[in-house]
Amino acid sequence: MTATAPFQKTPGWLDWYAGPSKPRFKVPPGAVDAHCHVFGPPAKFPYVPERKYTPCEASKAQLFTLRDHLGFSRNVIVQATCHGADNAAMVDALEASDGKARGVATVRRDVTDAELRALHEAGVRGVRFNFIRRLVDFTPKDELMEIAGRVHKLGWHVVIYFEAVDLPELWDFFTALPTTVVVDHMGRPDVSKPVDGPEFELFIKFMTGHPNVWSKVSCPERLSVSGPPALKGEQRPYRDVVPFARRIVETFPDRVLWGTDWPHPNLKDHMPDDGLLVDFIPHIATATALQHRLLVENPMRLYWPELS
Ligand code: 0GY
To answer: Which residues, judged by CB distance below 6 Å to any ligand atom, belong to the binding site of ligand 1?
Structure first.
């Protein structure tokens, strides 16, 4: 039995796409992939027992190779639930990045101030609160609010991941957070519903009424019902997601981020070509100035303010 045998990946899980195409869209110099992960290697960084899935390995070296291939300059590495509150694999990647990666951690109430300072030193600038039931067990909101108060003092932000149907129930908690709040994947709208229907209007109201709320306009491959283009040359990849992402980019141009979500955990039907995901960007940020804010100015302001 090998050291990694207890970490057989979840049945049905697709491996990440090994030969991504070169994007046709050239990202601006200094672009940041603001949502991606590293997994393992499990022999060194084991997955936590409470995880809901076991991923395939996705190393820091593979992430940095993808960054260069796609034309990006920097990464924001987000702690994934399979590593729980053990941030070691993410921190290891930050430390190997030569300052080109920042991180978003998961911490529990018992994290010490010294541990938070060490995470900051490594490049962590936020914590993630996950409300997706298939990914995590419930954490009491008072514990999360206490963590938010502590990381606020370090100048960090809170990343929230939830499904659109749960926004009404989570509204009071989200709007009480003292930090900048970054929403993963546009709050996972149901894109088969109208872009001006009540569900997405509530998300727009959330961002409009709360200038501390940002959104990642990421993960068309997760949200799309129409799916990827049949052919690489198709002009409108993930076309049903475009109106949703475009509306957010155009309404809140200074509060949007974009990321690949590599290595795309939990995808079972279709694994995106990351080059094609980059080609999605000009469909949602059509003007050069919007692309620059989305890919460079906004992430730099949030993650590398000392350089922006
Ligand atoms: C994502 C999305 C997912 C997984 C995680 O931390 C995670 O395990 O975020 C998902 O399954 O939707 O952003 O990577």
So the answer is: 37, 80-82, 135, 184, 222, 261, 265-266
Quote the pLDDT of residue 1.
Answer: 35
Helices (H) and strands (E) in the chain, counts: 11, 8
H or E, element range at 93: helix 88-95
Ligand 1: which of 266, 269, 271 to mutate, judged by most atoms within 8 Å of the beta carbon?
266
Amino acid at 140: P
pLDDT in the model for residue 234: 56
Is 261 catalytic? The answer is yes
DSSP 172: H
What integer pLDDT is reported at residue 231 of this predicted model? 53
pLDDT of residue 94: 98
DSSP string, 250-290: HH-TTSEE----TT-TT--S----HHHHHHHHHHHS-SHHH
- How many CB atoms are closer than 10 A to CB 222? 17
Q: Which residues of the chain have pLDDT under 70?
A: 1-6, 229-236
Which residue's CA is the closest to the ligand 1 atom numbered 3? 265
> Whose alpha carbon is nearest atom 5 of ligand 1?
80
Q: Is 170 exposed, middle or buried (0-12, 13-18, 19+ CB in 10 A)?
A: middle
Q: Which residue has a Cα nearest atom 11 of ligand 1?
A: 266
What pLDDT is attached to residue 232? 53
Q: How far is the CA of 81 from the centre of ligand 1 (A)?
A: 7
Residue type, 99: G
The pLDDT score that the predictor gives to residue 156 is 98
Tell me which residue has tokens 């954490």: 139
pLDDT of residue 13: 85
**What pLDDT shows up at residue 70?**
98
| pLDDT of res. 235 | 57
291 sits in which H/E element: helix 288-292
- Nearest ligand 1 atom to the CA of 53 is 8
Instruction: Record the tokens describing residue 7, joined without a space.
Output: 């970490």
